[in-house]
Design a protein that fits this description.
Layout (H helix, E strand, L loop, with lengths): L15 H13 L6 H14 L2 E5 L2 H11 L7 E5 L4 H9 L3 E5 L10 H6 L5 E4 L11 H11 L2 E5 L7 E2 L2 E2 L6 E5 L12 E5 L2 H10 L8 H5 L20 H12 L1 H19 L5 E3 L12 E5 L5 H10 L24 H7 L2 E4 L7 H16 L2
Parallel strand pairs: 2-3, 2-4, 4-5, 5-8
Antiparallel strand pairs: 1-9, 6-7, 8-9, 10-11, 11-12
Helix pairs in contact: 1-9, 2-9, 3-4, 3-7, 10-13, 11-13
The chain binds pyridoxal-5'-phosphate.
């Protein structure tokens, strides 16, 4: 019996260029935040046309963005329940409270009608999650925020390279946060960045990532540091290291190649599944998505866990993005979110990464259909 090779749900693609860049950074024997981080930030800032500040993870980017926006104890932040727990923890870390909202089961993004019902005098911000790379609702979210006088901290961890009406996510809006963890659209191993044009936010994020030491970032890019300093508010050790930035700088150069392949794969899935009645696909609503994951809904509901097991037997990894946060013990809400709860039970994520081929897609879709048709 031959076993088919394992198809992974997600993975990074690292070429000899990234490996060489890391080796040469290691040989310089300066591993902290230095000139490589400066170089990565320059690339990103030019790309977005706004200031990008690199940090050690996407989660810390979100936390520092919340801190920079002035969020603290007692403040409330509107957010869809169906997101990675990182978004909820980042809000909680500032002392603010994530307020779980419904999502739109058609696009995967926050349901603003539901969010509106949860606005209180303590609501200070909304954190839209560009689920699976889809940022179609961003314009409406920015209008909603204006109406209610809220800051907008985008969790764009899935949406590096997504465009709305031809404009890059991160190039407009209030504050946008990206993740460069190992499986995201581009990676720096671990990492993230905050993008904004608000000088007050920039100043706080730059300092708070270096333990709150005022104005030390510019010394670090020159491989120097200050020995006499002041601190005025909480800070963290959240800066990015040069080793991570060395990977990021090379991955950035490959971003268009990655984007093209991810979009090709999603088109391939759509072509293979569009007329298949037992699954429902999320819609892009006209957004030019750089897709990070490919979640689908299994109909009829109740089959999801079975399908996941059957596909695993065929050596195909699938995922579940995500357990709704309002169902977790730590973030339990005293109200239910019926759309999120019922849709979640139908959701399964199919493999999506640069190394997949069209024949891998054939294998994945055949396995999915076999599981659902019971043959
Ligand atoms: C990956 C991710 C994050 C956090 O990024 P890390 O770099 O892993 O800390 C936040 N939100 C969402 C939706 C993510 O997928």
């Amino acid at each position: 019996m031959t076993t088919l090779p394992l198809i992974r749900l997600s993975k990074s693609n690292i070429s000899e260029t990234e490996i060489a860049a890391v080796s040469s950074t290691l040989r310089e024997e300066y591993l902290g935040m230095g000139k490589k981080v400066g170089e990565f930030e320059k690339q990103l800032s030019e790309y977005f046309g706004r200031t990008a500040i690199c940090v050690n993870t996407g989660t810390s980017a979100l936390q520092l963005a919340c801190q920079g926006a002035g969020l603290g104890t007692g403040d409330e932040v509107l957010i869809q329940s169906l997101t990675f727990v990182a978004s909820f923890q980042a809000i909680h870390a500032t002392g603010a409270k994530p307020v779980a909202c419904e999502f739109d089961p058609n696009t995967g993004c926050i349901d603003l009608a539901d969010a509106e019902k949860r606005v209180t005098p303590r609501t200070k911000a909304i954190m839209p999650v560009h689920y699976a790379g889809n940022a179609a609702g961003l314009k409406a979210i920015l209008d909603f925020a204006k109406k209610h006088k809220l800051r907008v901290i985008e969790d764009a961890a899935h949406a590096f390279g997504t465009k709305v009406d031809g404009k890059l996510v991160g190039s407009f809006g209030d504050i946008t946060c990206f993740s460069f963890d190992g499986i995201k659209n581009i990676t720096s191993g671990e990492g993230g960045c905050v993008v904004t044009d608000d000088p007050a936010v920039i100043a706080i994020v730059k300092d708070a990532r270096l333990l709150g030491i005022i104005g030390d970032s510019d010394n670090r890019y020159k491989r120097e540091r200050t020995w006499s300093f002041d601190v005025q508010y909480p800070g963290w050790r959240y800066h990015m290291s040069d080793v991570m930035a060395a990977i990021g700088v090379e991955q950035f150069k490959r971003k268009d190649e990655f984007r093209k392949k991810r979009q090709h794969l999603v088109q391939g899935y759509r072509a293979r599944l569009n007329n298949y009645g037992k699954v429902k696909l999320f819609q892009d609503n006209g957004c030019d998505i750089n897709p990070h994951i490919f979640p689908i809904r299994i109909l009829p509901p109740g089959n999801r866990d079975q399908v996941q097991l059957k596909m695993k037997e065929d050596q195909i990894q699938t995922g579940i993005h995500y357990v709704p946060n309002h169902l977790l013990t730590f973030f339990k809400s005293d109200y239910s979110l019926p759309v999120t709860e019922s849709t979640f039970k139908e959701m399964i994520t199919l493999p999506l990464h640069f190394d997949l081929s069209d024949s891998d897609l054939d294998r994945i879709v055949a396995s999915l259909k076999k599981a659902l048709d019971g043959k």
